[in-house]
Design a protein that fits this description.
This protein has 199 residues and is mostly helical. It is 57% helix and 5% strand.
Length: 199
């Protein structure tokens, strides 16, 4: 089972009326790279402590998971026209953090509507991976996964070793196709990587 971000029809209209995401100012001056400011200190600490305790992962690792979850939501909010409804490109652990945040309903609504750039509630929809692959087809699923990479790089800079474990498509390109993080970060929006030496 995986998940997709969705945008309601009303939110899509509001986002469209505000113009292209690149031309809009954020709803609030909260930097994308500052997870504590996006969530508030209390919720940030709560999430990190909860997942460190329940998974046994080091606190620094959980902090990076939370950062990548918030980067994912930031991109969905910034680019609803390009990313809404696409297959979740991050690891299942990131999805679990998203689930946890959604259950903190008041804080999650504040995050979505006041701190993320789109200013709308980012909805969550579960979908089986097999079902998702049937809908757009495998090639389309790959193309949709690759859409995230240039948008991520534009917003947060190149992928680094800390982000690598958390983004499924990036890890696949790095480990299975032998691409360096620099090569992955340099992918243009429509690129279809074929690995070293491929034509």
């Amino acid at each position: 089972m995986s998940t997709q971000p969705t945008v309601s029809a009303d939110d899509a209209v509001r986002a469209h009326d505000r113009g292209p995401a690149a031309d809009r100012a954020p709803v609030a001056p909260v930097p994308a790279a500052d997870p504590v400011s996006l969530l508030g200190d209390a919720l940030h600490t709560e999430v990190v402590e909860h997942f460190a305790a329940t998974t046994g992962a080091p606190r620094e690792y959980v902090e990076r998971q939370l950062t990548e979850c918030l980067r994912y939501l930031y991109l969905v909010s910034l680019h609803p026209d390009r990313l809404s409804g696409l297959f979740l490109p991050v690891e299942q652990e990131i999805d679990e953090i998203w689930h946890y945040l959604i259950l903190q309903t008041r804080e999650y609504r504040t995050l979505c509507e006041q701190r993320l750039p789109g200013g709308f509630f980012v909805e969550h929809r579960s979908i089986a991976y097999d079902e998702y692959q049937r809908e757009p087809g495998r090639e389309r699923a790959v193309e949709q996964a690759l859409r995230w990479i240039p948008l991520y790089v534009r917003a947060f800079g190149p992928f680094d070793e800390g982000a690598l474990p958390h983004w499924t498509i990036v890890r696949f390109l790095h480990e299975r196709l032998g691409m360096s993080l620099d090569e992955i970060s340099a992918l243009p929006p429509t690129a279809t990587p074929q690995g070293p030496g491929a034509t």
